[in-house]
């Protein structure tokens, strides 16, 4: 007769070192683990709540400017370095890890309208209201040397913006026309114009580097080709576009920050319909910057808040504001896609986490696994009403809150009127215009 | 086009002529001489100037001051007419002189040439430029489409996209900064140094280099040539062999084979004369080859060829002959074995003879039920079924068959072929069996084998008899069900002879059933009593398998009968319908309604609905609560119930709730069960990417936690969509990252040229565009 015995082989349960995890034999029989959906739902609910509990996005405020911060620039090689230009003509270079200003330069008289770094990170360019373009060394002057620009170009008109080419020693300025400059020359290589209005911003495409986009005060966005030295196409919107930003992962996608509180994401090959209209701001959008992953972008608005939009969603996923933050004029997403910086009217640069509840610092593997699991759970149950409500809830300043209510009422009224007009007119006589097409006035070839 | 133009020029010409005519009538200046004409003209001009001074706009008359009517060739002037000079005028005097033909031609050619069109205005040109440039750029951008799509749909994206490649340092670099420290390392290095092993790329020691050098060029060449020749020869032989192998002609191969055999024989004879001992060895070899062939079962009719021939044998005389030849050869081979065994043992030989005497029917049974061969077991039922009907006549013709006298008289013309085939089959089965026996038993135990084979044989004989009977019986059943009783009665005595008692009993049972079935006309499944019997049978004798297939065939026939009965009834119905169709339309409609009624006779929808509603009402009613505790205050136990009084006392009746909403609505069930507390947690609208609620439910129902999934699956399920490394700069995507070739040309290169000057090609393209 065979007698069954309990066999205890230490190999099966004793860990090799005390640093190893205890081996836990598991039985995955579903009957032993019932109620999987309700349990996961509760986990998702808890994860969502915890996310809201730990959502503390504000990291630091960099103060030192003596006027509103008008422009920001990232350092292409160093994550810790940021440059900012203020309305009094001062340029400051900051160290983010120390959260201190490491250098201040009185660059221009009047506003610093634009600032950009060279692709190699050795120097930067500024343009100001004093009709000059100046090139500065990134490192400060040696002992006893005076703070002087490397080059100064005196222009005939005011420059309102500047951007540097991503690979070559070329930069572009805008003002009355878009000028392409060689760094070594004092005259532009070529100037491109189309119409006669002041151009507020010009941006190089980071992927197909010969492409440029600009936006002018006569409500249009113009695309240029640097190689063929011609403008390509122009799209006229309802209201003025303040700035545009190219997607760093998708060569033909750019987003425009508009005065009509919306942002428009365009495919540059089909300008007649934007790919997506992003609404949520309650005042003019002043600046926009893409995350380096190309999945999201951040926008700064006159309504004293910044918002983060997924590229393919019409509504924002996050809104950041503080009591003291005034009109946000410029915003940048850092190159490691973890942080957001914004410069505002009240002379401060603020540093935010891109993911509000993210834990900073090194994570253990178990923490990482838990984080991933929670993220997936939140995604899985995101449509359930309770979870949705908790995940969407944000506290807003009263001004923004009431503005949102007001605008909702206005929008509703407009919609109702439109529906009524449609209802009481001959079928087909009133065309139904989609939200995407509504804001496009014309596309000029 | 040219025609109209010519017409126009003609018109112009004629007008001019008219104008020219005018001055003719003019009275002045006809008699003036050449010399004064100049002064006069001046005077005229003066007059005109004076007249124009007085402010009135006088119409300026065309005037001609030429003296002659004809225009002289030296003094051409268009002054008077105020008209354009036309080429044709100038050509007029040339017309007559033939010496200026070439000039004329050239001039004509000039005349036929078109004028250059006006250039487009600047805006238009710029617009065209822009359009062309835009098309070009958007085409260039379209190459990113697949990349973008891939990245958007990617399960996981890891940034930075471009991985920093670990630097690949050559070995000498690594070695340069390294020193041997341990004694082992030092030893190894010493060894390497002793052999002067270099560390740089051509890792050849001087010795190796020397050996490489040692072989001279000529030697190497010769060697190569030799090798080449050998290779050529080899390939030649190979090609030839392949060609010969490819020859499909059977005759050729036959002749070849025969030739070879003859040759071998001749050689052998020669050898016999010259060297008898060698010849003996050769003989042994031949014998061995023969044995090998015998063992190889080459002449077993089991090959592809034999099978194909067997099929053809019915129609083809040659094939039949070939088959017979094969058979003869087979016999010959087997004969040899018998002879050998005979020489060894007298007894065995006798049995072998016995085996030879065994009737063919036995072999057939053996084929059907080859005991120890599991493969044959599987085949036999189907074989039996298929061959049954055809087999019958042959078995009748065979001398051993019991019912030879009862021949049905349906000798088929194919009987002969069938016999031939059967013979082959028999042979095969027999051989297989004997082979198996031999395999299973060691050589020393010949006796036991023989005895066992004897047993087997006797059983086989009995079986064959049985089989024959059964075949007859089944066929008869098929012919007429009325006569079923007769063969059964006839069979019973025959079956008494059988040694297999158990099977006989079963047989009788089934036959009884068969009778019953014949009367009742319905089929009963008799599978139940079988398994136990089977077990017993198997214990007794593993060879009596044919019982199963036989019964099967019988049952099948019964099913056929049943089928016939069932299929007949609807056909009768369908026959009845056409007669009614020929009535009036009303009747047809009525009929249809009738048919529908008949078709849906079973389901009464209204009653079902009422029942459903009643059930729903019942289910929604709260139940009374019974708080009786059995055994409390009285005896309890199995079979004892609490008293009615007690039950009545502890029953809590539910108060009447509000009446149902559908109480007065007979055709409606309103579900009042919706739980608002649960509904608050439920998704109300189907979320966007899903198209069906089932999809959504499925995604919700699959758990992703590690409680329900293995570690690997859990990791896979919870992979984040975007992974970034902290502290790493993510650069914009580059063409090189995704395998595209980025343009080598600098973005600046074009700009630095004068942008206003465009290439000729570009201009052409522009023009084409504008035309479009």
From TrEMBL, chain A:
Keywords: Nucleus, Repeat, Ribonucleoprotein, rRNA processing, WD repeat. The keyword Lipid metabolism does not apply. SMART domains: WD40 (SM00320). It is found in: Nucleus, Nucleolus. WD repeats lie at residues 62-104, 278-319, 321-362. Coiled coil: none annotated. Residues 354-440 form the Sof1-like protein domain. SUPFAM superfamilies: WD40 repeat-like. InterPro entries: Sof1, WD40/YVTN_repeat-like_dom_sf, WD40_repeat_CS, WD40_repeat_dom_sf, WD40_rpt, WD_repeat_DCAF13/WDSOF1. It comes from the Eukaryota. Belongs to the WD repeat DCAF13/WDSOF1 family. This is DDB1- and CUL4-associated factor 13. It comes from Ceratotherium simum simum.
Automatic annotation (TrEMBL), chain B:
Residues 1-49, 336-558, 739-772 are annotated as: Disordered. Residues 754-772 have a biased composition (Basic residues). Residues 383-406, 419-428, 442-452, 549-558 have a biased composition (Basic and acidic residues). Its main location: nucleus. Residues 741-752 have a biased composition (Polar residues). Belongs to the UTP14 family. Residues 344-357, 407-418 have a biased composition (Acidic residues). It is found in: Nucleus, Nucleolus. This is U3 small nucleolar RNA-associated protein 14 homolog A. The keyword Phosphoprotein applies. InterPro entries: SSU_processome_Utp14. Signal peptide: none annotated. Residues 1-16 have a biased composition (Low complexity). It comes from the Eukaryota. Transmembrane segments: none annotated. Keywords: Nucleus, Phosphoprotein.
């Amino acid at each position: 007769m065979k007698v069954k015995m309990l066999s205890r082989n230490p190999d099966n349960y004793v860990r090799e070192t005390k640093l190893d995890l205890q081996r836990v034999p598991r039985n995955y029989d579903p009957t032993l683990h019932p109620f999987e959906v309700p349990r996961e739902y509760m986990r998702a609910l808890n994860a969502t709540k915890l996310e809201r509990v730990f959502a503390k996005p504000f990291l630091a405020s960099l103060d030192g400017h003596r006027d509103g911060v008008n422009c920001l620039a990232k350092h292409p090689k160093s994550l810790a370095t940021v440059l900012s230009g203020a309305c009094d003509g001062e340029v400051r270079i900051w160290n983010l890890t120390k959260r201190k200003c490491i250098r201040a330069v009185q660059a221009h008289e009047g506003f610093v309208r634009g600032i950009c770094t060279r692709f190699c990170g050795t120097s930067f360019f500024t343009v100001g209201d004093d009709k000059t373009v100046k090139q500065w060394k990134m490192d400060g002057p040696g002992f006893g040397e005076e703070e002087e620009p490397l080059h100064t170009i005196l222009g005939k008109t005011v420059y309102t913006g500047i951007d540097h080419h991503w690979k070559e020693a070329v930069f572009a300025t805008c003002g009355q026309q878009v000028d392409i400059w060689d760094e070594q020359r004092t005259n532009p290589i070529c100037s491109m114009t189309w119409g006669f209005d002041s151009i507020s911003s010009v941006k190089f495409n980071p992927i197909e580097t010969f492409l440029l986009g600009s936006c002018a005060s006569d409500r249009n966005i113009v695309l240029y080709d640097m190689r063929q030295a011609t403008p390509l196409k122009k799209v006229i919107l309802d209201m003025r576009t303040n700035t545009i930003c190219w997607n760093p992962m998708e060569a033909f996608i750019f987003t425009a920050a508009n005065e009509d509180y919306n942002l428009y994401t365009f495919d540059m090959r089909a300008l007649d319909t934007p790919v997506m209209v992003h609404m949520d701001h309650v005042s003019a959008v002043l600046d926009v910057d893409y995350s380096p992953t190309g999945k999201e972008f951040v926008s700064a608005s006159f309504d004293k808040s910044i918002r983060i939009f997924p590229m393919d969603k019409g509504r924002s996923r996050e809104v950041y504001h503080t009591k003291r933050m005034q009109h946000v004029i410029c915003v940048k997403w850092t190159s490691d896609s973890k942080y957001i910086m914004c410069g505002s009217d009240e002379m401060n640069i603020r540093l935010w986490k891109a993911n509000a509840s993210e834990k900073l610092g090194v994570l253990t593997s178990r923490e990482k696994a838990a984080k991933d699991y929670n993220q997936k759970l939140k995604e899985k149950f995101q449509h359930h009403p309770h979870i949705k409500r908790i995940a969407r809830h944000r506290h807003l300043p009263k001004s923004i809150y009431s503005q949102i209510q007001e605008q909702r009422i206005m929008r509703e009224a407009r919609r109702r009127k439109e529906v009524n007009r449609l209802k009481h007119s001959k079928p087909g006589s009133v065309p139904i215009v989609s939200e995407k097409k509504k804001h496009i006035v014309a596309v000029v070839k | 086009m040219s025609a109209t133009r010519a017409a126009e020029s003609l018109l112009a010409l004629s007008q001019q002529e008219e104008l020219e005519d005018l001055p003719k009538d003019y009275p002045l200046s006809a008699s003036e001489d050449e010399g004064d004409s100049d002064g006069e003209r001046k005077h005229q001009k003066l007059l005109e100037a004076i007249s124009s001074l007085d402010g009135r706009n006088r119409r300026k008359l065309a005037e001609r001051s030429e003296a002659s009517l004809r225009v002289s060739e030296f003094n051409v002037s268009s002054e008077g007419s105020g008209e354009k000079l036309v080429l044709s005028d100038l050509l007029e005097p040339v017309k007559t002189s033939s010496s200026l033909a070439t000039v004329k031609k050239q001039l004509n050619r000039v005349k036929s040439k078109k004028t250059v069109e006006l250039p487009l205005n600047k805006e238009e040109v710029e617009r065209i430029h822009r359009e062309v440039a835009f098309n070009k750029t958007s085409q260039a951008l379209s190459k990113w489409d697949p990349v973008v799509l891939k990245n958007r749909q990617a399960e996981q994206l890891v940034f930075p996209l471009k991985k920093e490649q670990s630097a690949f340092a050559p070995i000498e670099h690594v070695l340069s900064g390294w020193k041997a420290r341990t004694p082992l390392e030092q030893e190894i290095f010493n060894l390497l140094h002793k052999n002067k092993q270099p560390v740089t790329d051509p890792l050849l020691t001087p010795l190796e280099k020397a050996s490489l050098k040692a072989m001279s060029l000529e030697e190497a060449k010769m060697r190569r040539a030799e090798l080449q020749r050998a290779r050529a020869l080899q390939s030649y032989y190979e090609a030839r062999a392949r060609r010969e192998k490819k020859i499909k002609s059977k005759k050729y191969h036959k002749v070849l084979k025969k030739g070879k055999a003859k040759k071998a024989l001749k050689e052998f004879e020669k050898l016999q004369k010259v060297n008898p001992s060698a010849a003996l060895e050769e003989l042994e070899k031949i014998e061995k080859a023969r044995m090998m062939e015998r063992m190889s079962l080459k002449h077993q009719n089991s090959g592809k060829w034999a099978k194909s021939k067997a099929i053809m044998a019915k129609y083809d005389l040659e094939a039949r002959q070939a088959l017979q030849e094969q058979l003869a050869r087979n016999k010959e081979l087997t004969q040899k074995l018998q002879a050998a065994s005979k020489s060894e043992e007298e007894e065995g030989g006798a049995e072998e003879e016995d085996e030879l005497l065994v009737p063919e029917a036995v072999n057939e049974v053996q084929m059907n039920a080859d005991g120890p061969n599991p493969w044959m077991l599987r085949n036999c039922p189907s074989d039996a079924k298929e061959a049954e009907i055809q087999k019958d006549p042959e078995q009748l013709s065979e001398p051993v068959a019991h019912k030879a006298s009862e021949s049905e008289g349906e000798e088929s013309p194919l009987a002969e072929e069938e016999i031939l085939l059967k013979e082959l089959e028999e042979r095969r089965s027999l051989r297989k069996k004997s082979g198996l026996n031999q395999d299973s038993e060691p050589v020393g135990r010949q006796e036991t084998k023989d005895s066992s084979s004897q047993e087997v044989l006797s059983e086989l004989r009995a079986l064959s008899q049985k089989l024959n009977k059964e075949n007859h019986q089944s066929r008869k059943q098929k012919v007429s069900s009325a006569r079923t009783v007769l063969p059964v009665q006839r069979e019973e005595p025959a079956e008494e002879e059988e040694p297999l008692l158990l099977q006989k009993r079963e047989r009788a049972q089934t036959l009884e059933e068969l009778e019953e079935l014949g009367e009742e006309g319905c089929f009963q499944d008799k599978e139940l009593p079988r398994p136990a019997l089977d077990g017993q049978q198997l214990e007794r004798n593993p060879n009596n398998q044919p019982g199963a297939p036989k019964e099967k065939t019988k049952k099948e026939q019964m099913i056929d009968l049943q089928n016939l009965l069932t299929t007949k009834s609807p056909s009768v119905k369908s026959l009845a319908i056409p007669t009614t169709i020929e009535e009036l339309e009303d009747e047809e409609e009525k009929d249809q309604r009738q048919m529908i009624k008949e078709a849906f006779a079973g389901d009464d929808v209204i009653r079902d609905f009422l029942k459903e509603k009643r059930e729903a009402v019942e289910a929604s009613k709260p139940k009374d609560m019974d708080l009786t505790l059995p055994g409390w205050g009285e005896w309890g136990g199995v079979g004892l119930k609490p008293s009615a009084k007690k039950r009545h006392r502890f029953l809590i009746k539910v108060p009447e709730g509000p009446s149902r909403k559908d109480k007065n609505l007979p055709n409606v069930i309103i579900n009042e069960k919706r739980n608002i507390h649960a509904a608050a947690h439920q998704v109300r609208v189907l979320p966007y990417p899903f198209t069906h609620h089932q999809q959504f439910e499925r995604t919700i129902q699959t758990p992703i936690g590690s409680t329900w999934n293995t570690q690997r699956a859990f990791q896979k399920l919870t992979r984040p969509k975007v992974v970034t490394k902290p502290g790493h700069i993510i650069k914009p995507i580059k063409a090189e990252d995704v395998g595209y070739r980025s343009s080598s040309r600098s973005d600046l290169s074009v700009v630095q040229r004068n942008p206003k000057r465009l290439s000729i090609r570009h201009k052409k393209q522009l023009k084409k565009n504008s035309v479009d």
